[in-house]
Amino acid sequence: MGKTRDLSDFDRGTIVGARCYGSSISETAALLGFSRTTVSRVYREWCDKQKTSSERQLCGRKHLVNERGQRRMDGLIQANRKATHAQLTAVYNSGVQKSISERTTRRTLKRMGYSSRRRRQVPLVSSDGRESGIDSREPVPSAEPSSQFKIVERNDSGSSSSCSKLSLPECTIGNN
After folding, report:
1. Model pTM?
2. Mean pLDDT, the chain, as a whole number?
């Protein structure tokens, strides 16, 4: 059986209220969207102990970096966005009685929402290419045209003119 989220006090009170109103377990489960087992367990607990709150949030080990420590760490991050985990840990430990490890710093930063960096976007067109309209992914043509390649154009009169702007193998273009 997997773990599921805890019911809020409001959800528990709604279940108890619906059952006290006279709804059956199945009607309450269908109305509120909980399983019949959950409805039965919450209502039975209320009947036995008059308790509608969960104390499960009090279980487990307390965090080394509490809410105040998180605000302090947030200030350290805002002061130096490019600081490494080791640097943040050293600065944080210089001002508190309970020192924390680098691993705790990483865990706390992840809990605070600093878990990943945005990738830097590389432009597809370089700044020089933007002016000339050249895509940076394509090879840049050399300034001098190659002497072994040239295009020959034939006019209607049959004479040919050479064009050395493009570096393509020799070919004939025009009417034959």
Report:
1. 0.40
2. 76
